[in-house]
Structures are given as C-alpha cells and as structure tokens.
Backbone:
C-alpha cells in the first residue's frame, strides 16, 4: 500500500518536475524578451557641443541615446539615413524588435523627416506612431524597438 | 547594474559591471535543474523496477554531470554570449533518453533474454564522444562565417557520406533493409547524420549567394511568383538527390529530411511562398512515384493507413506503439510502470512511444515543449544574428531539429508513415547523438555571435539612466 502511494508520488512528482523545468525555461525566455535590453539602457553619450557655441540652422548629427547601440553617432549629410537590421542600412540595429528596413530619415531643405518603411513594430516620434513623413526637431526622441535616437545640432 | 535593477537577468548573470549580460549563470542553474531531473528519473526507474538504487547510479550521475560541466565551462570560455537555454534543453533531452534506454535495459533483464545488451552505458560513451566533438567544433569554428568558405568542400563531404553506404556491399551497410550504415569492427555509424549537417551548411552558403536570382527573376502566374525554369535547378537537384537516397539506400527518413530542409531554407532565403508550393508539388510527385515503384514504400504507407489490418506483420510495431500510448493515457504509467519493451526497437525508433507510455500525454507534451524551446532559441539566434549566412544556417539547423521531431513523432503516433528517423538527442544511436552535438555546437556559436553586444561598450563610470519612457528628453540647445 505505501509502495503504491510512493509510486504515485513519483509518477506525478516527476511530471511536475518536468513542467517546472519548462516554466523556468519560459521565465528565461521572457526575461530575454522584456527584461532584456530595455533594462540595460547603456549610458548617455557625453554631452555634445557646449550650448551657445554657434548658431546653426539644421541638426548636425544623429545620436543613439538608448538601446544596444547607445552612444553611436552619425554625422548628417544630404543622403537619407536608412535604419534597420539589414546589413546595408546606414544604422544597422541589432534590436530584435526592429525590421530589416525599419525607418528612413530624409533631408528636405535642411530639415529632417522621419518615415516608417512598413516596419512590424512601428517607429515612434515623441510617443506618437509615425504614419507618414514627420518633421523631426532636434532633441525629439525617435524610438525604434528598444533603440532611441535623436538629432543634435 | 542600473540602480535598483528590475532586470531578472542580473540574477547570477556574471559580474555586475558587464556591459551586456552573458547569462552563463542562468545556464548553469538550468543545467543543474536538468541534471536533477535526469537523476530523479534514473532513481525512480531503479526503485520502481528493482526496489533499490543500483550502485552504478553514482558513477552515472558523476559522469553525466561532468559532461555538462565541461560543456558549460567551454561555452563560458569560448562562446560567452551564447544562448542560455540551448545546453539545458539538450541536457534534459539527453538525460531523459539515457534514462529510458536504461529502463528498457532493465526490462530486457527482467524478461530474462540472454543476449540483452546494456545499451545505456554505450549511449553514455556516445554522449561523451558527442561532447568531445562539441568542444572540438566550438574551438575550431571561432566564427561561424568561416564555415561558408568551405561550402563546396562540405557539400562534397556530405554527398560522399550520403553515398558511401549505397556503394558499400550490403554486408557492411545494410541493417533491416536500409543501406544507411557503415559497420566496422563492432561499431556501426550512420554517415547520413553527419551528411545532414554538411549539407545544411552548404545550402546556407549557396542560397546566400544565389538568393537574389532565385527571388527576383520570376513571373507571376495565378498569384504565385514562379521562378524561371533555369533557377529551378538547385531544388530539382536536391529533389533528385533525395530520390536517389530513397532508391539506393531504401531510407525514407533521410530523403524526407533532406528535401524538407532544403525547401524550407529556400523559402527562408527568398521569402517566396511559391517555393513551398513547388516543394510540396515535387514531394507529392516523388511520393507518388515511390509508392508505385518501391515495395518497401508501399508497405510503409499501407501499414500507416491501416495499422491494425497488418498487426501481425508490418504493422505490429506501430500497433504496439499505439497501445503503449493508449495505456499511458494522460499521466502515464509512471517511469518503470509500463511495458514499453513490448514495442520492437523501442530504444531507437520508438523511444518516443516508450516515453509517451510512461510519462503520458503530459510528459510527452513536456518533452515536445523542450524541443520547442530548443528550436525557438535557434530561430531566435537566426533572427538576431546580423550576417545572412548565419541567419540561414541557424534557421536551417533549428528547422532540421523541428522537422525531425515532427516526422518521428508523426510516425510513432500514426500521423505520418514510419520513416526510421531518430528522435534527436533522445533515441539510442551513436551517430545521431554525436552529429546532433556538432549541430548544437554550431547553433551555440551562432547564438554567441548573435547576442554579443555591438562593439561600442558603454564607457565605464557614466551615470545610469532610466528607460527612455520615464526619462525627460534632454535637449541640447544650440
């Protein structure tokens, strides 16, 4: 009788153990998805040019302020800037939430516009989802997945 | 690292100042969990069947633990950013496989058959060889991209391995009608298992080269992007190759495996669903032809359609497997409580049925979910890794595992015709186990490359910052 009970404990206990393993594995997966890189926002890049150094019309560079690439700067020219996971993007993101061709920044007469290229998870300018081309002011955060960018003068 | 961290990753994941978590601590904990489950399973089997723990259990436990400790240390040293779930999932699957093989060994002893061989220790030796190969691959392949340089060499090696048993005399290469073995001096290896990996590497390198041609030059017919005739070349070659394997080696499983992998990799590389349609069409044609031409295929299909009509002949194995699964029910008979030895070849081809009988639906689904985790981690590495070759290779390897599990479980449960593929990491069989450890090593290598942070680490000592959502945007005034 006791042997029978012990066997039943083994039987269900083992199944429980198996599913606990899976539960633990899922927790790791979850931590990867949500607790991951957002929680590990690296650091603000050293403050750019001292204020009031010069009067300039348009922004001069694109700075990544958060996400795995935080601290990266790209000097702005006339060429559009392609952002995405694809190798040939101007800014190659490693973000899992970014699409291969995620967004584009284009220069029109000294002003920069951001455009979403049909990405899965969207591009956000100041918490607002980018539908058509939107004018980006310097300092306004552009958010792509876990990466945040802004234009600096 | 950033103040009161709510990040679950920081728990035991390396030094606090690391720029990106390596998650090796998580891996170690999960490995420990897998080892505990394995040892618990072994102990339950022993107690249920013999009412005592066998003295060798300590040796087994030590050896088994040592294997994973070695792998963990090697990964920690040479692939520090590798995915933390790959090793634990494999550890659990290997452990459950070893337990079930040991359990079937015991069943053989009880029946009293004189010639029963102790297969579990042999499998443990194979696992050790597998770990050695894992370490070797991880040491030699420091960057997965170097594999693409040997693409054509590997294709040649793969094809030779695949063709070798067909060319050897049947006395060396044939077991139960399938000519897929090389039997030498008491050892038998299935070179096809290694060919599989070589060919996946080749497919990945080839498709990265050619995918633009395959994807772009196409015409639209009835809503499907059909490729040009001459671009069909590779898929037709792969198709004929798998048919040749089928004809000369009478190996339904490998042929299905190779063709499925190739079609899916083609689909992933080109993102054209038309390749799937073409693949299914070619497969249908091939399957129809094979059914018409080959007796052994007909037997397989007939027993699949109605196993109970052939329960005394070709369908016996499948019928026993179905009875076993039925006996197991939802919660199983308990480890050691069933009669999985009633199924012929339970240790290799039908180990899933044995597990299903003793662990029940809940246990079998748990095992499938562990495979799912393994495959998901592979596909995820494929998503994150930045080079196209790595993406395709990881996806191909992960899909190979998924496809193999699907085909095997489909066969065991009567959903698909029986094919003779092995359940990866679980089933008895040296080549399969060793080859799959090599596959795992490549996946670990790619996941390490995928999760390694980009080369711009945060400068130390800079103040931490809250997530962007809460932080005020800092405007730098001109």
Residues:
């Amino acid at each position: 009788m006791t042997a029978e009970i012990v066997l039943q404990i083994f039987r269900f206990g083992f199944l429980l153990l198996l599913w606990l393993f899976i539960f633990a594995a899922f927790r790791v997966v979850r931590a990867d998805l949500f607790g991951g890189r957002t929680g590990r926002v690296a650091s603000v890049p050293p403050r750019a040019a001292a204020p009031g150094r010069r009067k300039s019309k348009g922004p001069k560079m694109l700075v990544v302020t958060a996400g795995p690439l935080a601290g990266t700067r790209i000097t702005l020219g006339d060429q559009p800037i392609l952002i995405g996971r694809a190798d040939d993007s101007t800014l190659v993101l490693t973000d899992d939430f970014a699409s291969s061709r995620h967004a584009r920044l284009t220069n029109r007469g000294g002003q920069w516009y951001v455009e979403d290229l049909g990405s899965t998870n969207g591009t956000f300018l100041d918490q607002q989802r980018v539908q058509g081309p939107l004018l980006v002011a310097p300092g306004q955060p552009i958010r792509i997945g876990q990466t945040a960018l802004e234009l600096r003068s | 690292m950033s103040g009161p961290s709510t990040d679950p990753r920081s728990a035991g994941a390396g030094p606090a100042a690391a720029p990106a978590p390596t998650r090796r601590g998580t891996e170690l904990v999960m490995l420990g969990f897998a080892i505990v489950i394995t040892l618990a399973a072994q102990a339950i089997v022993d107690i249920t069947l013999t009412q005592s723990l066998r003295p060798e259990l300590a040796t087994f436990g030590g050896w088994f633990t040592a294997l994973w400790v070695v792998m963990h240390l090697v990964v920690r040293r040479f692939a520090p950013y590798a995915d933390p779930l790959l090793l634990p999932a494999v550890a659990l699957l290997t452990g459950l496989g070893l337990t079930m093989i040991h359990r079937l060994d015991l069943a053989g002893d009880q029946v009293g058959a004189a010639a029963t061989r102790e297969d579990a220790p042999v499998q443990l030796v194979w696992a050790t060889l597998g770990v050695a190969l894992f370490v070797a691959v991880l040491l030699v392949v420091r960057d997965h991209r170097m594999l693409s340089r040997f693409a054509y060499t590997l294709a040649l090696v793969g094809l030779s391995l695949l063709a070798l048993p067909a060319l050897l005399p049947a006395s060396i290469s044939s077991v139960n009608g399938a000519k897929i073995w090389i039997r030498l001096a008491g050892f038998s290896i299935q070179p096809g298992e290694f060919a599989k990996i070589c060919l996946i590497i080749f497919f990945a390198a080839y498709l990265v080269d050619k995918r633009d041609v395959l994807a772009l030059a196409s015409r639209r017919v009835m809503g499907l992007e059909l490729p040009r005739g001459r671009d069909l070349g590779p898929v037709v070659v792969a198709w004929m190759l798998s048919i040749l394997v089928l004809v000369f080696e009478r190996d339904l499983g490998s042929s299905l495996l190779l063709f499925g992998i190739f079609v899916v990799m083609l689909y992933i590389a080109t993102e054209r669903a038309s390749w799937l349609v073409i693949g299914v069409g070619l497969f249908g044609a091939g399957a129809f032809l094979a059914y018409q031409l080959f007796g052994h295929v007909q037997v397989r299909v007939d027993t699949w359609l109605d196993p109970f009509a052939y329960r005394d002949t070709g369908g016996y194995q499948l019928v026993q497997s179905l009875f076993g699964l039925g006996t197991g029910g939802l919660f199983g008979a308990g480890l050691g409580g069933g009669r999985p030895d009633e199924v012929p070849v339970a240790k290799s081809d039908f180990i899933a049925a044995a597990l299903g009988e003793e662990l029940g639906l809940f246990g079998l689904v748990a095992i499938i979910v562990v495979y799912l985790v393994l495959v998901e981690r592979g596909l995820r590495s494929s998503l994150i890794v930045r080079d196209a070759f790595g993406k395709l290779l990881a996806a191909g390897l992960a899909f190979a595992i998924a496809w193999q599990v699907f085909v095997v479980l489909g066969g065991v449960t009567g959903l698909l015709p029986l094919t003779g593929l092995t359940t990866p990491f679980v089933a008895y069989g040296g080549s399969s186990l060793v080859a799959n450890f090599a596959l795992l090593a490549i996946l670990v290598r790619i996941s390490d490359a995928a999760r390694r942070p980009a080369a711009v680490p945060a400068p130390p000592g800079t103040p931490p910052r809250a997530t962007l959502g809460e932080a005020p945007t800092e405007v730098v005034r001109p």
Q: What stands out?
A: The longest helix of chain A spans residues 2-33.
